[in-house]
Amino acid sequence: xxxxxxxxxxxxxxxxxxxxxxxxxxxxxxxxxxxxxxxxxxxxxxxxxxxxxxxxxxxxxxxxxxxxxxxxxxxxxxxxxxxxx
Length: 85
Ligand SMILES: [Zn+2]
Fold this sequence. Notes:
This protein has one helix spanning about 50-65, and strands at about 15-25, 30-35, 40-45.
């Protein structure tokens, strides 16, 4: 993945769509953009003019729309056998 700070234009002219938040080791947030034309990914640090609500909802999206039942977390049997007695 190429990482270019401060450049939000895509290489091929396709529109860059923000798809995820990435928290760097120094707790700085980065936005992951995907090119709508070729699908390449690019990371940018969030900018001062980024919409904070949009950033927060993007970060919360996997939790708000889980791919598996969240109530299942923490209820797995110790042996890992969910069907056994
Ligand atoms: Zn592209």
